[in-house]
Amino acid sequence: MPSPSSQIVTRFAPSPTGHLHVGGARTALFCWAFARRQGGVFLLRIEDTDQARSSEASARGILEDLAWLGINWDEGPELRTASGTLGGDPRKVAPFYQAQRLDIYNKYIEDMLARGLAYADFTTPEQMAAMRKAAEARKETFRFHPGDAEILPLAEQRTKMASGIPHVIRFRAKDESVSVTDVVLGEVAFGPGEVDDFVLRKPDGFPTYHFGVVVDDELMGVTHVLRGQEHLMNTPRHVALQKALGFRTPIYAHMPLIFNDQGAKMSKRERDKVARDSVKQAGLKASPVPAIDEATFTGWLGDTKRQLETEQLETLADAMKLRLPEVSVHDFRKAGYLPEVICNFIALLGWNPGQKNADGTDFERFDMRFLAKNFDLERIGKTNSRFDRNKLAAFNKDTIAQMSEGEFAARFRDWCTTFAPAFARMADKPFGWLCSSIKLRTRTFADAVKENEFFLKTADQIAYDPKAVEKVLKKDNAKGIETLRHTREMLAALPVYEPAALHTAVESFAAKLGVGMGDIAQPLRVAVSGGTVTPPLEQTLAVLGKDEVLKRIDRCLASVG
RNA sequence: GGCCCCAUCGUCUAGCCCGGUCUAGGACGCCAGGUUCUCAUCCUGGAAACCGGGGUUCGAAUCCCCGUGGGGUCACCA
């Protein structure tokens, strides 16, 4: 057992303003993996200092997404899961919600005020904006750093604060250069004046991100800060603050960023864009779903900057049978990606194990245990990467293909329970047949459901694809229809509707007619599904059952022939 | 624009730190062929990259400089 002082502590500190993003998930994963590898502690802290945007619901959602991914935190808010409770406070460093730590921050503010490390600033937002604009007009970078003479004496600051005048508390920055040591990037130097008198406490009494992070990381004993490179420019501020307060400086590791396929930042906006574009293409003038009111809809349609609520957007997409690009962990879950695959894939975005398989191919398929055993900071790359959904899907497909049929059926059913209840209601036997027939052709659960919707329709809901009808049934003097008629008789006489029996029946029937399997199968496919693509014939027929198969053939014969 | 980071196939990357074994390897995708009742799987083959320019060196994808390109960041948001 390492002594407490040598134990490493990592932390993931999301702000609860929405769903967990894949970038955030990767940060959490790396923090988790590093802590595991080092035998340390992985802590979760909720940075809910933006009162307007934070919500308990999204904090909860983030906890659940992390738990689903298998990124288990040792300390932090508690969450009960099927396999136990996550989180807790063995070292007594709670609370883990920053909004509950205001007293702590204020104590440090008091101290800094008294020591002249910080000061109350009564500049109004309007004045700030004007100064910023003036600096811009002079083509200068705006930095708030008044001369000593412009800062009120402490006694005067206190009087004004006591009288209730809105103010912020600012850090009094020193005019010196700051050097940041980063495990990934190396030494990064920032010249004097780069750190300005940034805000520590907002007018509402809540700490800013910078202040909360520095105080909490110190108090919670965080030794390693792993975060995205978008935070690099914040680091000199944090280091300056730590110095002023006499805190330790943790070891920093800034990770490369993750972009979408277009090379832009992955954001919810992409989803709005896809939905908006297809609404426009469909020429819709009003919302097809009641969940979105008139004004919201037209406003959103006309303004590319506007976003719909997550719920609204999803309802709209469902109604239009649209597939939105996934950006949050929840999106991927809903689309039917496996949590272990997501972890494997995002781990590869910016890190790789640097090992080869026996056949010389790169070793890139690994599980959480492997990460917990082998993850290191040294192999984190420096270059930003694009999130390739194609490759993710390929990983997902391969993982599914390697599952046993039993495992696939269980996990698919489990997913269907929440995301495709109609499939979850299927009886065990047909569901099993369906699963064994689609396992090798399933990329995601959502795709599987979409491709196999015809199973759950009623005979009269089947829409026949005109091209398929022409090619398979009507061509060559309706040869297909003729074959279908004969096949119907054979199938009507068949007592057992199970894959093996159906297979022999169809095969020997084809032999009897002196035709190939395809000549029998294709007309049947069209009759039973409306199209030319279905899982293997015997399973398709078995899943549907005798009554349904005959009903569908009859209807097809009646409406096509 | 200031500051900062980065740069190998379309994409993710190995190799770079400790120059030669790199006619630069793998994966996803793509193309062609084969197996097959459709689709898919599976098998075989293929096209595909060291951003540019200077150095250093016998020798550079690997080290240095400049250029170019991309990205991040400049909040009383985190």
Q: Explain this structure to me?
A:
The protein is mainly alpha-helical. Helices cover about 50% and strands about 10% of the residues. The chain has 23 helices and 13 strands. The chain has helices at about 20-35, 55-70, 100-115, 125-135, 155-160, 210-220, 235-245, 270-280, 295-300, 310-320, 330-335, 340-345, 370-375, 390-400, 405-420, 420-425, 430-440, 445-450, 465-495, 500-515, 515-530, 535-545, 545-560, and strands spanning about 10, 40-45, 75-80, 85-90, 120, 170, 180, 185-190, 200, 225-230, 250-255, 260, 385. The strands form six sheets. A three-stranded antiparallel sheet has the order 5-6-9. Strands 1-2 form a two-stranded parallel sheet. Helix 7 links the parallel strand 10 and strand 11 (about 250-255). Helix 1 packs across helix 13. The longest helix has 28 residues, at about 465-495. The model has no long low-confidence stretch (mean pLDDT about 95). It binds one RNA strand of 78 nucleotides through helix 4, strand 8, helix 6, strand 13 and helix 14.
Fill in the keyword field for this structure.
RNA-binding, two-stranded parallel ribbon, 23 helices, mainly alpha, 49% helix, 10% strand, 561 residues
Structural topology:
Layout: E1 9-12, H1 22-37, E2 41-44, H2 56-69, E3 76-81, E4 84-88, H3 102-114, E5 118-121, H4 125-137, H5 154-162, E6 168-171, E7 178-182, E8 186-190, E9 199-201, H6 209-219, E10 224-228, H7 235-245, E11 251-255, E12 258-259, H8 268-282, H9 294-302, H10 310-319, H11 329-334, H12 339-347, H13 368-374, E13 385-386, H14 389-402, H15 405-419, H16 421-424, H17 428-438, H18 445-451, H19 466-493, H20 499-513, H21 517-529, H22 537-544, H23 546-560
Parallel strand pairs: 1-2, 10-11, 12-13
Antiparallel strand pairs: 3-4, 5-6, 6-9, 7-8
The protein binds one RNA strand of 78 nucleotides through α4, β8, α6, β13 and α14.
